[in-house]
Amino acid sequence: MTSATTTNNENHAVQTLTNAGDHLLNQPLRLPNGSELRNRLAKSAMSETLGTYDNRPTPKLVTLYRRWAASGIGLIITGNIMVDRRALGEPGNVAIEDDTDLPLLQQWTRAATDQGAAIWAQLNHPGKQSPKGLNTENIAPSAIPFRQDMAAFFDTPREATVAEIEDIIRRFGRSAAICKKAGFSGIEIHGAHGYLINQFLSPHHNQRTDAWGGSPEKRRRFVLAVFEEIRKNVGPDFPVGIKLNSADFQRGGFTEEESVETILALADAGVDLIEISGGTYEAPAMSGVVAEPQKASTIARESYFLAFAEKVRGLVTTPLMVTGGFRSVGGMNAALRSGALDIIGLARLLAIDPDAPALLLKGQDSPQRVRPIKTGIKPVDRLGLMEVIWYTQQLKRIAQGGNPHPNASALGTFLKSFVQSGWGNYRTRRLRA
Q1: Structural domain boundaries of the chain?
Q2: pLDDT at position 150
């Protein structure tokens, strides 16, 4: 049972659970490898871009993650950590190719683990999904361009050679081994949101006819090879999870049926956690930017991907994490009570209220609400870019020791970010030259 206790300046009811038996967020969770998370709340990955322009970690990451860990949250998943400095998703990405930055990586992990939170490194390769001018070139499973209205932002990639595919797989394993050495509590493979692994899974992006494409089984070969290489490098007792799309929501893309088959294959391979999300930059469902109005029942249940999780739960016992759409402690507890998932993933809320887990774990809502971010520039708003850019700027404020600014101008943030991104692209290319 819930009761309204207060309102914020947006006049939404803030709920407090009055029956302790209804509150499931505090329950610990034991993963298949034997490790335990202290509760059912997790920070899902968000774009931070707090690395240097030559892609090394900075003390700002330590400050940001210390703030999140102090909230009492159980699991913190980093933003994109790239496995190859030549293949970046954004200026300021951290890349881990060797142990050069081990001391600062250890500070980063201790910022979380010293306060009882688990911290997992999300490892990624962007493939084609990298802004124009950042990398010398972008490779992908096939040389498929972005749709016409995005061609100004993203170059058409070159098709990867077999040797390059095998090199990328080895890089995932090597980066994972360094992360373990640095004290990270686990690894999450980024297999969603249109990045390289998702591209290999998608029949739209992967039109190869060799051993790496041509059928769903062959398109799954890359993600399974990445998982196997990471497992080989970190051992059987170290948590390895994956973030996977329920679907791409794109014509000819990765479907729910293919996602289910991929999940079954990963579960059989021994993955420790599956985070369910959806969409790509071309169809950003993960940010709530959807082509069609949502059903009232979906809005009431809050989570964008809960129905898909229910389908998967009937097929696997692997712990499931669902990210996207959760707004209230009541909705989170209802989702856990349904048995469809084991962990609630939060992202944008923690950019505008980094202390929210402390309230949620007490059975109280955060006074902040995630809202659509619109600049008024139709091409920008249609792409959903501000659902990344605006929240990234909030993370930068926290990382500098300050507080987020929930009412910051979307247009002002876009213009500032546009300048910073252009400069970042230039500096990254110059440092690499």
Answers
A1: 26-432
A2: 79
